[in-house]
Amino acid sequence: MMQMLMDFSGDDAVFGHFGATGGYALAARRAMHDFGTGPETWKKIAIGQRKWANLNPHAMMHAKPMTEADYDNAKWVVEPLRLPDNCLISDGGRAIIVTSLERARDLKQPPAVIMGMGQHNPSTVIAQSDWMAGPTGAKRAGEIALSMADITLDDVDACQIYDCFTYTVEITLQDYGFFGPGEGRDWLEGGTIEPGGRMPVNTSGGQLSEAYFMGLTPLAEGAMQIMGRCGQRQLGPLTHTKEPKIILCSDNGGILQSHACTLLRRL
Amino acid sequence: MSYAKPLPRLNSDNRPFWEGCTQHELRFQQCADCGHVRWPPSDLCPRCHCREVRWVNSRGIGRVYTFAVYHTAYHPGFAAELPYVVAVVALDEGPHLLTNLVDCRPDEVRCDQPVAVVWEEVTESVTLPKFRLLSPDQE
User: Fold this and answer.
1) What is the model's pTM?
2) CA angle centred on A123, ends B64 and B130, rounded to 5°
């Protein structure tokens, strides 16, 4: 294990820098400096997603509600990130079957249709980046996907955002254009992303509160919501949210070094 | 007592840097064509793809681009130092260097604060470049 950590970290380990939490803590700190975000914003993301997990019996954090005090009192892992800012560690798997629309029409389940995709990969050695506070790859990837689908953000009914850390959700939504730099805290106010909110985000609980299956946590949830297979947490009348006709899903790799955006729609 | 933390792994790319540190010099590759000063060392200039380089010394002065405060020991060698500060320092010559800030309390550190290199001789053959905070009048 130690050898693996050191191989992964290279000479960063010499200075006690290891793994993903440290890397995202560096990015989150620069964002605090550049546009005034911080734990008060990230807390709303952690708590909002936990509310969705509490409607999902498969979620690791089902039946474990999170209060503001729970968040505020949680230990630092690598400051400015506390334990609930970190995704879960999960054993398991998830799969998506991709086929032609022609074949999908004959299947028992209604399909989720891919209407747009975009990728953008800044790729730089992360310490050399000067965009830790954005724009990340999400900006260009989102533009490409929306353009391919010929829609705007106003057409999106819900988002499934790759959430290795709470800050990743904020910077991704910000770079897609849902709000301006530093406006996330106000945008999130009043339960925007929660059950009953106007822009539901990570409706399974996400990687923060359901389970970590890399890019498949958000993408599978997007497909399941479009297909109407989400039980208690199903978007629409049951959760007092918009009918999910179009869902935006994101994926992200490295320390904000690669980004993919996928737009799914109902048939 | 022997040094209990990970040591840099020298190779043909980074050897001039780490050998420079033992002389208390911060050495970086500079592209002979476009002048870009780069880190980490590489065969090609990431800006213009030129292969020719010269090695130049940094003054060891820069600013905190960002930092993180570790409250978790991912390696037992760091357990006694918690909480400690990992920082990315933007050197005046251009490169960002991942390092530690020393001789300060974590709550004193701010992004864009000026810093200067200090040298920590950890073994007979390895010296680490770390940084300390400068007051604005020391820049």
Assistant:
1) 0.95
2) 25
